[in-house]
Amino acid sequence: MSEVVRLYYPDPRIAVVVMEDRAHSNLFSRPLVEGLLESFAAIAGNPAIRAVVVHGYDSLFCTGGTQEELLAIVEGRLQFSDLPLYRLFMDCEIPVIAAMQGHALGGGLMIGLFADLVLLAEESLYSANFMKYGFTPGMGATVILPAKLGSALAQEMLLTARGYRGGELRQRGAPFPILKRQDVIPAALDMARDLAEKPLISLKLLKQRLTAELRNALPEGIAAELEMHEVSFAQPEVRQRIETLFGR
In this predicted structure, what is the pLDDT of residue 2? Predict the structure, then answer.
């Protein structure tokens, strides 16, 4: 099992996945990605599990692609769809709760929004920051953000690429529980315990139905994002922005 992703079971029916890659600040490093894939493969192989909680560490949930990954897209060596990490939580057969207690940026925000239930922290920063670097959004952002936050707020977030504190998103009508950071993970575990009381087959059936519209919309959305990437990542300004602005 990965050293930066921890999987544990506070209850035989509940799995908790903790992302803690302190060396890379919970970017999509190879150890983090491999750890997430390994954890969800283990969850899929455990018939007792009825709910999953995913969270980060301290003030970080997940901060998106690494600089190396973005430059690989610039050079045509990588596409975000090569590894469908963005839809990992949605593709899990049982409900996944994203306890986004910390900052979630770019693809790190998108992976969380693909969960079935989402909790945010008042103090934490949430940003669809793709256009900060001059390239168009990926990771299913053009589909999942409008679906979860509404079209007006989603367009603003995608176009401006600015960050929003959880408290501001509450004022803007975000439909998620937005709590003090210290309360996010305990609240998510309470949700998981509630889900764990339900019959497993019923949970799976209902999740399949509730995600059907999103699953149907994704192929067209992902294809459009990849087409935009071919053009937007080819701009010299984008490489320059990735090289000079990343991490600032």
Answer: 77
